[in-house]
């Protein structure tokens, strides 16, 4: 996918990825890996994947939860994440 986005195509594509980490550290690592694998510096939409346990939403939105990693990445403060589009408005749960 990264090669396909070269030559200016990234600016014309809407790119999404997903994480299944529920805590800040694992979500940041997974998002960073997606950015490396996709060879891009931003994601337009991020999906929390496999919301199957009753407490998954609570874990994601709790202090130290995965949501913190995404907000940090969006705001440019992530260690392992370059950036997430500032306009990110949707976090999908599947």
What does the model show?
- The chain is an alpha/beta fold.
- It has one domain (3-93).
- It is 32% helix and 12% strand.
- It has helices spanning 24-38, 56-61, 66-74, and strands at 16-19, 45-48, 91-93.
- The protein has a three-stranded parallel β-sheet with strand order 1-2-3.
- Helix 1 (24-38) crosses helix 3.
- The two termini are 23 Å apart.
- Mean pLDDT is 80; it is low at 78-85 and 87-94.
Biggest sheet statistics: 3 strands, parallel
- Total helical segments: 3
The span between the termini is 23 Å
Physical arrangement of strands within the biggest beta sheet = 1-2-3
Helix content: 25-40%
List low-confidence stretches: 78-85, 87-94
The outline comes out as elongated
Structural class: alpha/beta
Sequence of secondary-structure elements: EHEHHE
Let me know the number of strands: 3
Average of the residue pLDDT scores: 80
List its salient traits.
alpha/beta, disordered C terminus, elongated, 94 residues, 3 strands, 3-stranded parallel sheet, 3 helices
Quickly describe the structure.
The chain is of the alpha/beta class and 94 residues long. The protein has helices spanning 24-38, 56-61, 66-74, and strands at 16-19, 45-48, 91-93. The chain has a 3-stranded parallel β-sheet.
């Amino acid at each position: 996918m990264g090669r396909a986005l070269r030559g200016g195509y990234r600016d014309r594509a809407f790119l999404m990825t997903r994480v299944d980490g529920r805590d800040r550290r694992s979500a940041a690592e997974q998002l960073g890996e997606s950015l490396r694998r996709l060879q891009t510096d931003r994601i337009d939409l991020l999906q929390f994947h496999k919301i199957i346990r009753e407490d998954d939403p609570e874990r994601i939105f709790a202090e130290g939860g995965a949501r913190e990693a995404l907000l940090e990445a969006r705001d440019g403060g992530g260690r392992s994440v370059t950036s997430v589009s500032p306009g990110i408005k949707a976090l999908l749960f599947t």
